[in-house]
Design a protein that fits this description.
Largest sheet: 2 strands, antiparallel
Distance between the termini: 68 Å
CATH topology: Sodium/glucose cotransporter
Oligomer: single chain
CATH architecture: Up-down Bundle
Mean pLDDT: 81
Number of helices: 24
Shape: globular
Low-confidence stretches: 28-36
Length: about 575
Amino acid sequence: MNVIAVTTFLLFTVMVAVISYYKTRDEDLGHSTGYFLAGRSLSWIVIAGSLFLTNISAEQLTGLNGNAFASGACVMAWETIASVAMVAMALFFLPRYMKRGITTVPQFLEDRFGKGMRTVASFIFLYALIIGFLPFVLYAGGITLGKLFDVSGALHVSESAAIWIMVISIGIVGGCYAVFGGLKAVAVSDTINGVGLVIGGFLIPILALWKLGDSSIVAGWNVLLEEAPERLQAAGVGSEAPVPWHTLFTGILIINIFYWCTNQAIVQRTFGAKNLAEGQKGVLFASFLKVLGVAMLVLPGIIAWHMHQRGIITVPVKEITETGEIILARDMAYPLLVREVLPPWMTGFFGAVMFGAILSSFNSGLNSMATLFSLDIYKEIIKKDATDAQMVRAGKIFGAILIVICIIIAPFIGKAEGLYTLMRTIMAVINVPILAVILMGVLSKRAPALAGYVAIPFGMAFFYICHFVLKDDLGFIKVHWLHLAGINLLLMMAVMYLIRLIKPLPVPYELKYTGDVDVTQWKYVWHASWLIIVLLVILYTSLSGLGVIGTGEKLTRNLAIIWGSAAVLLVAIFAKLRAKKTEQYL
């Protein structure tokens, strides 16, 4: 363990903690709005930084790059389609949330379907975060920082012991932020670490290409194009593709809409916005960062594969199957790459930023769970006359208990084949049913609460049985698990619509404005949304046979056509939006 690396790590980590304390020292953390929603004072840049860093953590950097190491660029679909889901959040979901002035997503369900649905949804969200999110954050953080600083070698302990040490450390420090600092402390530290993560995250593939190309970035890029260009194919093609291109329009889109539009751990940042316009700006800027994030979340994994082939790094063998197939520990690829390409002083800085990113995801989840427990369970079921101070205290105690539970669970995740895919499949059991109920509540004004009570257990049972028991084999056809998520959503919507036809609400539901938050839209919300969509089109066409994967003299011409057409399309869209706005004032 290098002394310089450890020193820079400690300096940056302490600096973030001091700034976070300075920015939040005058906050009223004894009041529920101050503790859980940062007093509705968050600006767009803080929201964007917190959203980006809450999502881009070790389970993303390690897990998604591990998938890219094994399967190539097609796994980028999780990130790119996330941008589309965030556009939907800014345009469709957030205005409705802000209009009701809610603190939790289950509160929105209570407003639409009654108190019972709020309680059911709260317990489901708590279960999802405990089983399918927080332990993964701790485990991914443990293996990433453990490899980055060679904790096993430095302390002369086994790899499993090193993971336990890092998991416990991350859990305790992250818990202190979330339990004692509230949402404002989480958001401020996220913003600072977010800047560092963007710098360090984009620097990794640049240095890795430099290393791969023997001190030439261009030569390193040419290695990717010449030796295995198919690994840069953005759209998954062929029967063996882990993320087939057609799943972008079913399971991947559905799971991302749940994650970015209805997942309490994510959307709570937007609930703390000063107003709707600030929230929309924050969400869309984070969406823009997600498009760029492919360079830090997928490209390093592809480069790591080439480095492993050339012997520059050695990704260890995880197991050898009975048929003799060698399975590599794909989740080790990214931390090994980072340790190989970074100088000691930069390793400490990047380790500190990574530590902050891990803390961001972990303490964000803890804060969200404390919010759900305090407002939706403690206040509504356990102690209905609880004061604000009592709710905050209950949330802190609950958060402390969760830290212990998640620390115990985390190290056992390592037995899974792919960290990121495992996390998504576990969450799919829960998130699709919740999303279906919210969608029905928004789209239908007469759907009764009964529709949700029937659909949620039906949807959870259907996906669990079909995926985990039947292994995606429906008897007459075998489907990809992501398509299964899409089928599940359609079946649930059909069941709920049938119940709506049989037993509709006597009085249509009406979304009423509480006046808690200014809900004036950001005037450029549609411009920014279209810009993001066009950027995605550019990205996918560039990483295809029409773009960089193509060969010969046509390559430059094709790229010029792609980017030129996109520029013309953007000009036309912006002109149309400007003309429409002008008509409104005439």
